[in-house]
Design brief:
Elements: H1 3-18, H2 23-48, H3 52-77
Length: 78
């Protein structure tokens, strides 16, 4: 590759790397960590929950967290 073409290629790559990441994808990434933690803790609590009322509430929390997770995945793919 000619040096001038390499310089242009490097400059374009630098400009792309300096551009901010898609805000929607960045937000999805930021939310997915804490959301995963919520889901893991729900699973752990459900293993030991014996009271039907507690189980019902944990299942509701887990369901809503999964719904958010699906929405985030869909938004980040668009």
């Amino acid at each position: 590759m000619k040096p001038s073409k390499q310089i242009v290629k490097n400059t374009l790559a630098e400009e792309r790397s300096e551009q901010p990441e898609d805000p929607v994808r960045q937000l999805c990434h930021e939310i997915s960590g804490p959301l995963t933690s919520i889901l893991v803790h729900c699973d752990l609590l459900l293993e030991n929950a014996s009271a039907p009322d507690a189980r019902q509430r944990l299942v509701a929390i887990q369901g809503e967290a999964l719904r958010i997770s699906r929405s985030l995945r869909a938004a980040s793919q668009n």
